[in-house]
């Protein structure tokens, strides 16, 4: 015997010949494993990237002074040099070095990743404000106030635009020569202060002359540094007659020792800038804990007493809004994970079903060889070993390729969970193939409709278990509602599987009910002369190819497609409602304070029907039985606002009595947050004044993007705010107005620092947010994937039934059955159950949103205050259903056309063997 012949008969040679004898089914199964592994690794990474991008957008919407780890207190720095650890200039180092070294030591002691998301510390000292007097000015003229500021890194933050830098102050203030200062160009203009001009500043027990020697501009006006000093770039202008203009005047930072004995209030700001772009979504929980610990501790910035007014700094604590922002982002991420897990459970079920069918096809391709091996003495263990080897050869390489491709495709880190799932996919062919190996050999075939007593008993048990699981999951879902956050618990697998479990229940119903009308059809067809309807329906009833697996694929595939279409329509309509509610009018003009002339110009723009300024959004205190709670006061003119928002379903309710003087106090409308906090209190006041709540509104308004607020009419606002200068103006357009032209004119009047927003603009922005965009992509992918897997399941179902047809169709062909009849018999195998499954899947897909959205929070995708109402878009649902039907029909037709061509002689010979 030649070596080549021997190699062909060796174990490896026989296995190779077996695989090459029918590789198509094995290759198809390998491709399924590859796709599953690719999705297992790519999807979690894509979700992590989406969460990180959404976190970046959320943090980017907040000012730096809310995110930075900040300490601001009435104290002065300890004047001393460092041990050389800072990079400050020598003269500044001698004054500020010790404090900066303490700040650097604090940062060095931060744990990772907290230290990694912060930058080197910054600090600034401001004093005052104090009024400066212009020589010869009229008493009724503008009031100018300055805050002398000391920035150790002043020349890193600003550039000189005119004049010169201020010289150090060598003598004690007051009494020294004129103190030199610099302003930003905007503040110098607002102060009407010329270069070289001196003004008098009351300082402690005397007066001090102050001279403007230069003007500066910010190196980067968008730098978060300036959010800690809002009066350093632009002046504050309050009131009208006379206006009060306030701004920061920068003094040489090494001059602080000359001001130590000046009895002016001093505020020291020290902070660690937080860089939102460095925060990864998977670090959120860790950072929340580290921020909790860091902000609860005290840190030493000097040897002085703790936080007493005008004393040297000692121990301080830092605070940051970053923790709350991360908690909010984590809640949104958890909500989106719950939605995505719910969407994914359906396609996962279809993928499993198709893998089972694919493994069955591979097994059927190997059945003849296994039967022959068993007849020649192969043990059950050897048979299982053969199948296991092929399963490993199919699964492991495919899973590796798919996992690597998914990892390379998405540049994000999602841990090892995806690779664990990919490993499960790699072993799935082994498990499925080996499980089909018989316990005894030779292999035997049996009719599906005989000997079913034990099988029916187990079937009832399994079906009852499925129904119980679905019921339990549904009850838990409805009981939980939206109240339970998934931030700490993560995604609940049982609740996420509700769509799949309900689909399984639908499968049980389909498989139990569809034989009833089919049996009636068989009885009627038996009395007719035509063979194909009777034989096809009888075979479909007696020995159906479509068992649980293909029915599950069709029901789940169609229901997932329809459910995704409804969810897509719901999210899009929710985004539209949110955009309308947040703008609150046809347009919103916001930005810098608007003068009376600008407000009048807004109203005079052609195409504008009415305008309504939001006159103030200022901080106030609500006293609740002696305890103070900070909130925001919103001041509007009720008549103006009602005119602008007339007819809008999203308008904030503004009763006319708001403009009246209430007998029991100032009439106000409260947010739900404030109303809940004062519920049951005996004594409540707003800034010491009694009030009467005449309405409660849940959530934010178009006037303020916060959930905590108190709203009153302008007529009653005088005791609560000393200025009514609007920063937001709502605009109503005339019917048929040219929106583009009107918004352009409004923007021109508002100036370059303001912006005009319409609902369409905001709608576009909301749709572009990473979370919303990610959900849309996921829903479209779910529709496409479910449809393709459904088609593949139908094809595989017909392929599984091919051996039986190869025995039957040649016989019928010899008896005169035409080719058209052959294809019709093939279609009968899958047709009845496919039609019923399509209907069941469509009905389930329409009903699923009503159930699932009881416990899945979509507000993370719509950016709204309320859960969006389930919205059915008829054209979208009809298109998805039509696509599902078309895919099913095309798949069945293609499979029936291919499988109808059976070689008669070969089939008869196989039957004889």
Automatic annotation (TrEMBL):
Please classify the protein's predominant subcellular localization into one broad category.
Answer: membrane
Cell location: Cell membrane
Which residue range or ranges hold the ABC3 transporter permease C-terminal domain? 781-897
As for membrane topology, the entry says: Multi-pass membrane protein
Q: Where is the signal peptide?
A: none
List all membrane-crossing ranges.
338-363, 383-410, 416-437, 458-482, 494-514, 547-568, 775-800, 825-855, 875-896
A Pfam family: FtsX
UniProt keyword terms in alphabetical order:
Cell membrane, Membrane, Transmembrane, Transmembrane helix
Q: Which PANTHER family match?
A: ABC TRANSPORTER PERMEASE YTRF, MEMBRANE COMPONENT OF TRANSPORTER-RELATED
Tell me its family. Belongs to the ABC-4 integral membrane protein family.
- The name on file for this protein is ABC transport system permease protein
The uppermost taxa in this organism's lineage are: Bacteria, Bacillati, Actinomycetota, Actinomycetes, Micrococcales
